[in-house]
């Protein structure tokens, strides 16, 4: 506190009149050179993306501080600029002047906007994830359907091919009666007759069975069972359904063996598959 003698003494630049009361400065005095105008502070804070409520509160508080301190200093020094500061303060709306209820409304509105923005973002993300999942599922379903369709087509093609082979195997190019009877036959001659009776697509399977049963010997006899001929018919007399010369004519034996394979297994190749699995046919 200044000495008692200086309280009422006139000061240069101040009109004579009653002595003004001395106002005690704030605890943390602020020099005039460090106080920024309210507009500059608002611009600075908004440049750093501070919310409008924070900017407004900071600006009002700053204006209040500037006005108060400026008034004190101006009155004490007689600076005319104090009048401008007082005018600024008088035109500013202090945060404390806003009713408490309205402050809460402003804060609630801001929080509501933030919550709405977050919810909208979450909805957008959820929608994007759902769309991506649906796209992946649709692709998987399409792939599965395509695989099933391909499998069905392959099975149908295989079935059609087998049916054609079976029909072809039943429709030999020539029959046993088309060949002249000889007194004897070589293995090569017997095979040549078989190629003309058995369809081309089934001949290899037919040949495999004959190799296993008789090694192309049209007079082969199984000593234990009595099976006879190229196809080891049991009994051999079954082949008489084709012709009575079944004992000496390989063409008769080949024709009977082809008929048997077609009737029992649908084709020589099916008969060969059974033979491989069981050792007989």
Automatic annotation (TrEMBL):
InterPro entries: Lysozyme-like_dom_sf (IPR023346), Transglycosylase_SLT_dom_1 (IPR008258). Residues 1-31, 139-173 are annotated as: Disordered. It comes from the Bacteria. Pfam families: SLT. Signal peptide: none annotated. Residues 139-167 have a biased composition (Basic and acidic residues). Residues 206-267 form the Transglycosylase SLT domain. This is Transglycosylase SLT domain-containing protein. It comes from Streptomyces flavotricini.
């Amino acid at each position: 506190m200044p000495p008692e003698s200086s309280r009422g003494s006139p000061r240069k630049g101040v009109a004579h009149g009653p002595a003004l009361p001395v106002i005690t400065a704030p605890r943390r005095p602020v020099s005039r050179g460090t106080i920024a105008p309210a507009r500059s502070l608002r611009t600075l804070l908004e440049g750093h993306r501070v919310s409008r409520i924070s900017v407004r509160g900071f600006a009002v508080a700053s204006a209040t501080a500037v006005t108060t301190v400026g008034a004190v200093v101006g009155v004490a020094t007689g600076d005319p600029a104090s009048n401008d500061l007082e005018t600024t303060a008088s035109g500013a709306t202090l945060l404390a002047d806003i009713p408490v209820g309205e402050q809460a409304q402003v804060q609630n509105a801001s929080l509501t906007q933030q919550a709405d923005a977050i919810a909208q973002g979450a909805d957008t993300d959820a929608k994007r994830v759902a769309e991506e999942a649906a796209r992946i599922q649709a692709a998987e379903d399409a792939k599965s359907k395509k695989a099933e369709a391909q499998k069905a087509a392959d099975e149908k093609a295989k079935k059609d091919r087998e049916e054609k082979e079976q029909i072809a195997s039943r429709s030999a190019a020539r029959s046993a009666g088309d060949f002249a009877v000889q007194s004897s036959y070589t293995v090569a001659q017997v095979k040549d007759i078989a190629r003309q009776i058995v369809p081309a697509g089934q001949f290899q399977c037919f040949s495999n069975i004959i190799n296993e049963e008789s090694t192309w010997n049209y007079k082969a006899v199984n000593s234990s069972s009595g099976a006879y001929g190229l196809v080891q018919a049991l009994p051999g007399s079954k082949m008489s359904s084709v012709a009575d010369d079944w004992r000496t004519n390989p063409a008769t034996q080949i024709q009977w063996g082809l008929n048997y394979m077609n009737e029992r297994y649908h084709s020589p190749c099916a008969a060969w598959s059974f033979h491989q699995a069981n050792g007989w046919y």
